[in-house]
Design brief:
about 200 residues; alpha/beta; Rossmann fold; 2 domains; six-stranded parallel beta sheet; 6 strands; about 45% helix
């Protein structure tokens, strides 16, 4: 490639990027300032809770306070629980679940645990000091009808305008998706469990 050809390529590249920047500037000028978002991480793939906790880390980085309620995961120790314990002034972390449904084998007990977790969630959603509230595996509690979806939708719709809420878990209810601002579906392509690997520290918990 000669020097003149390279100069032409670079000039066309610069012109294209300049035009793209002008388009982006116009688009961004039309965007609104931020408001509280309802974010749903769902789907069969791995990473729903992980992504939610990534947002929690961002919030902490900006000095914000975060509330976390875990609906299903039991009392077993996880890396995220140990990590967020390092921020006692910024994170309210409540593990409310009794474990996976195949472990408890007691529907009434699961319903009672889900109700207690939802009550804790309502307190966090109403707390003006918490910028982000993560309702981990709430979708699972709704899937099994441990909570009424209409009640949950009503409460999330009535939250303050600046409150961010992230809901995780498979099989998000259509009623919840309908009111969400962000919905991400994690698609399963491959999972180590299917290759006979147990859950691993630092990766899965």
């Amino acid at each position: 490639m000669t020097g003149s050809n390279l100069d032409d390529i670079n000039a066309r590249h610069a012109a294209a990027k300049k035009a793209l920047k002008a388009e982006r500037d116009v688009m961004m000028a039309r965007k609104r300032e931020g408001a509280g978002l309802l974010i749903i991480n769902t789907g069969e793939g791995k990473g729903k809770t992980t992504a939610a906790f990534g947002m929690a880390a961002r919030a902490l980085g900006w000095g914000q306070r975060v509330g976390i309620v875990q609906f299903i995961k039991g009392k077993w120790i996880t890396g995220e629980r140990q990590f967020f314990a390092r921020f006692p002034d910024q994170v309210v972390f409540k593990v409310m679940g009794e474990g996976f449904t195949w472990e408890t084998q007691d529907r009434e007990r699961d319903i009672a645990a889900a109700r207690a977790a939802w009550d804790a969630s309502l307190e966090m959603i109403a707390d003006p000091s918490l910028s982000l509230v993560i309702l981990d595996e709430l979708n699972i509690a709704l899937r099994y009808d441990y909570l009424g979806v209409d009640e949950v939708v009503a409460a999330l719709s009535a939250r303050s305008a600046d409150k961010h809420v992230c809901v995780t878990g498979r099989n998000a209810k259509p009623e919840l998706i309908a009111i969400a601002d962000v919905v991400t579906e994690m698609t399963l392509v491959r999972h180590p469990f299917d290759q006979n690997f147990k859950a691993q520290r630092g990766i899965d918990f």
